[in-house]
Amino acid sequence: MTTMSKFLFVLVLFSQTSIFAQSNANDNIRGNSWFLDDNMSLFLGQWSTNIVIPIQHGVYRNVITNGDAAVKNISLTFDDAPDEINTDKLLDILKENDTKASFFMIGKNMKDGNMAVVKRTFDEGHLVLNHSFDHPRMPDLNVSGINSQLNRAAERIETITGSYPILFRPPYGSINPLVVETTNDHSMTTVLWSLDSLDWTLKDPDAVTQIVTTNIHNGDIILMHCNSVTIASLPTIIKKLKEQGYTFVKLDDMLGVKAYRIDNKGTVIDTKNKLMWQDNSDVERVKLDWQGAIDYCQNFIFSGYSDWRLPSIDELFSIRNETRENIAIDNRFKKAVSDNYWSSSDVYGSGYGWTISFKNGDDDASLKNSNFYVRCVRDNK
User: Is the bond into 82 cis (omega within 30 degrees of 0)?
Assistant: First the structure.
């Protein structure tokens, strides 16, 4: 790598960091090395421009790159499992070091002897997650192709482990609006990373160890792969990061999301009206205004699903199995209509907090300072 190339590469990284600082620096995806050649440096710069900056500027919904920067937790993630050699060796290292991790696995590879290592990964308490069926560049696919990649991999994982994963990492970290929208339609969350170990391009375990241990931040999601370089570097990485006071956690624990799709007693499924909603014990009592209640449900992840929303007035009464006439609604809500939403703990005087609707002009100032029970619903697909 020439001196000028190195200078330009650092300049690109500095420029991108400046852009990140203006939006949300926590989403900055780090990882670089003087051992990279010119082509790889250019590739990483282009990838950061095409993928990271749009994430920073809110182009995508439900794409995660990092955990809470205020907590000294970090998460190891391994792509491209399973295989009969490297995955088992990684599991041995994790077991010896009492460390849990998250594995993004390729559906096509889960056959013959590899099925046993998938089951072992799950049984030993690690996450087995979706990395597509045969590792294509997802933006090259149409909706049908994206659906196939998501479904076939998740269903094969479910066949082996009994759990259907809803965390997805696209191969090569490559996304576009169609990929993300289709993933969201599957009630899946796209998970990238905040620290790239570069184990996929560097052949030197010492260089990989240095990249991870010197660039680590709170809340980092660390990208690694099931290969010999990772196997050689992982024991030292775990040891050094623990010495620095970091705690290794799985992605679901770090991010506060479900890793697998489940239907439990906390979710009510109404097949007649094709609707799902939270059970009473899971209703959130929070201080929100009208827009805050909408945002809450849009960002709500519960029972393995992420596509929750506030109910319309008609859906609300369907849930209660009652008509509007036989509930004494407060006079402030008499003009309720179905195109706007509100939630208040004292609407019915019944101990239940339910979402109701009314025109924007009907919300007086006192309601905006109330405590609200926010109940979210989703379509039962």
Answer: yes
